[in-house]
Design a protein that fits this description.
This protein is 47% helix and 23% strand. With 178 residues, the protein is an alpha+beta fold.
Length: 178
């Protein structure tokens, strides 16, 4: 297949880690805002009121804003040819893997992930460590889609690495033994 006849690359899915990681920071946000407001109205001195508001803002910034930005900055893109992982808040990392390089897809779940039907999707590319999509919602569906896309991927590298059909190899062996 030449480059001119090849189908254009299409976006299949855009994912983020499961949003349940934002539940605890959101509870902290409500508690810190309520606590800082209460302290600002109860305390008499101006410097105490300002200190309470400042402490509330620091808690909100560290325990709500940073986890939110971290969650927003992690994205997984699945196209018809590639898997793209983008991570990082201050230092951005982009990792691209051709789907034709993938051997198999595995879903790993903890107890909490099973309750929310999420999980870690591991794509084995034959490298030292598999590519991991951490805490993806509907992990079974993502793994199934990746498996289908990897099977449909037809490059020369994938054709060489894929095992030969049993019928074809048996017919070749029988011809050589005659």
């Amino acid at each position: 297949m030449t480059a001119e006849t090849r189908a254009p690359e299409r976006a299949v899915s855009r994912l983020r880690p499961h949003a349940r990681v934002l539940v605890l920071p959101s509870i902290v946000l409500i508690g810190a805002a309520g606590g800082a407001s209460f302290a600002a109205f109860v305390l008499v001195e101006l410097w105490q009121q300002l200190a309470a508001v400042f402490a509330g803002l620091v808690v909100i910034g560290l325990l709500w804003l940073l986890p939110l930005l971290s969650w927003l900055s992690t994205q997984y893109f699945i196209t018809t040819r590639r898997l793209v992982l983008r991570k990082g808040l201050f230092v951005r990392t982009r990792q691209e893997v051709l789907l034709s390089r993938g051997h198999d897809v595995t879903v790993r779940r903890s107890g909490l992930q099973s309750m929310f039907r999420s999980g870690d999707v591991l794509v084995n590319t034959g490298l030292d460590r598999p590519i991991t999509l951490r805490d993806v919602p509907r992990a079974d569906l993502v793994a199934e889609a990746l498996t289908d896309l990897m099977e449909a991927s037809t490059t020369s590298i994938a054709a060489v690495r894929r095992p030969v059909d049993d019928d074809a190899s048996l017919s070749r062996r029988s011809r050589t033994t005659r």
